[in-house]
């Protein structure tokens, strides 16, 4: 992790995951490190609301059983949100929340992490996403 | 061993602790999940929400420890509440405050300790969120920030409990 040392605005990142403690730790520590301004969303409805109101430089989204997260990412790649269609994305997977690698690849998602995730792991993930060139396929 | 010191604001500190109405209450999921998260996050065998009472430290939530309290004089947390920053002891055998502490020389054979003081909005410290290992460890700046973030959630829950009718 290579925290920013200049006073430029921190890049906005969306973290959508149901775990309050994970969100709290990542939001607070990313800000302290000067890594990112992480916006936490407890569910996909909240994530969609945030996606509709502002652009993000990176997304970390927990997959759900109903496929709503994939729908959100599909709309992102179609340019339906203020964020660039090619915004780097990582997904968090877990029991009953896995999807096939080909589907992830078709959405330009190269980073996955299995839940339960550590805050440190998600912070490292965000740092990697912010260093990546846009990888999505609009 | 250097016994846990008594802070200069001890009377006010104990008043604040008692006003939380949390001592000797049953385990609660909202605190238990924080210790479970901390133990998993840092891969530590023990994680505690420890409250420093007049003569004991009492654990509101605990992972990996059978005891629900110890005497205050031998507590690591009693030292940690002296400051507001995370207290880290990488190897208790090398620290004169703890080298001959019975929690180090005997069960549970503490080697590593990191504790974030539970500082209430008024500035009084009532306990810690801490993690413990039986092996010497290091604890990075990022680890300390994560522990502090979890500590903030513990303090919020304590204050919420105190505010409930």
Description:
- The complex is a heterodimer of chains A (138) and B (165).
- Chain A has 138 residues and is an alpha/beta fold.
- Chain A has one domain: Response regulator (Rossmann fold).
- Chain A has five helices and five strands.
- In chain A, strands 2-1-3-4-5 form a five-stranded parallel β-sheet.
- In chain A, helix 1 (20-33) crosses helix 5.
- The radius of gyration of chain A is 14 Å and the shape is globular.
- Chain B has 165 residues and is α+β, with helices and mostly antiparallel strands.
- Chain B has a six-stranded antiparallel β-sheet with strand order 3-2-1-6-5-4.
- In chain B, helix 2 runs antiparallel to helix 5 (141-163).
- The termini of chain B are far apart.
- In chain B, 41% of the residues are buried.
- At the A-B interface, helix 1 and helix 5 of A face helix 2 and helix 5 of B.
Count of structural domains of chain A = 1
Which stretches of chain A of 5+ consecutive residues score pLDDT under 50?
A: none
Q: Mean of the pLDDT scores of chain A?
A: 89
Order of strands in the sheet with the most strands of chain A? 2-1-3-4-5
Tally of individual helices of chain A? 5
Residue windows where pLDDT falls under 50 for at least 5 positions of chain B:
none
Determine and state the CATH class of chain B.
Answer: Alpha Beta
Name given to the CATH homologous superfamily of chain B:
GAF domain
Share of residues in strands of chain B: 15-25%
Please name the CATH architecture of chain B: 2-Layer Sandwich
CATH level 3 topology of chain A: Rossmann fold
Strand order of the largest sheet of chain B: 3-2-1-6-5-4
Oligomer: heterodimer
Broad CATH class of chain A: Alpha Beta
Average pLDDT number of chain B: 96
Radius of gyration of chain B equals 14 Å
Helical percentage of chain B: 25-40%
CATH fourth-tier homologous superfamily of chain A:
Response regulator
